[in-house]
Write a structure and sequence with these properties.
mainly alpha
Length: 188
């Protein structure tokens, strides 16, 4: 179980780095084919890393009090949403910039709802810092509006989110395999 949390933490940090790189590439690109391809590949790998980070959150919380079906539903919705967006990224890399907007919007909606559910449960469960939950709730919708300021703002906000989650998972990974009574005695 600890290995899943560790890999989730590493994936969160990797996603953060990749999202920062994608923001830089996005600012530098002028729509040229090669730079657009690199940008899409970096974003695709970042989304895969985000999925692994969400699995790390799930591994940290599974079987703990205050983490039930609603949290699992949030994790599944978030993973499904990012997976849909990742598949749409691959399709746009293969077919060009053909827009499958309804499918992409479905993925975004799943990420929005899933992240909000997961964020609320993280705040309630208190296994990760409360601000990780708040970031999960606000980053995705805020990123959409932040892109109006400059086109890479959403990626930078998501880098903050997943980097924070990655660090928090790595800090908490040693506590996963400890008995629940030992954890409660230390935190209580």
């Amino acid at each position: 179980m600890s290995a899943k949390v560790t890999w989730g933490g590493i994936a969160g940090l990797a996603a953060a780095v990749l999202l920062i790189i994608s923001a830089i590439l996005n600012q530098m690109s002028r729509g040229s084919g090669a730079s657009s391809l690199y940008l899409n590949v970096v974003v695709l790998v970042a989304y895969i890393a985000v999925i692994v980070a969400v699995l790390g959150i799930e591994a940290l919380h599974s079987g703990k009090p205050r983490y039930g079906r609603l949290a699992t539903t949030g994790a599944v919705l978030t993973i499904t949403g990012y997976a849909i967006i990742a598949v749409m990224t691959v399709i746009s890399m293969v077919q060009g910039q053909r827009s499958l907007l309804p499918v992409r919007l479905t993925g975004a909606g799943l990420v929005l709802v899933g992240s909000a559910l997961l964020g609320v449960i993280i705040i309630l469960a208190r296994l990760l810092p409360w601000w990780c939950g708040v970031l999960l709730i606000v980053t995705f919708p805020l990123g959409h509006f932040a892109n109006a300021l400059f086109r890479s703002a959403e990626n930078l906000l998501m880098a903050l989110l997943w980097g924070s989650v990655g660090v928090a998972l790595l800090i908490r990974r040693q506590e996963v395999d400890q008995p629940l009574l030992t954890q409660s005695a230390r935190t209580g």
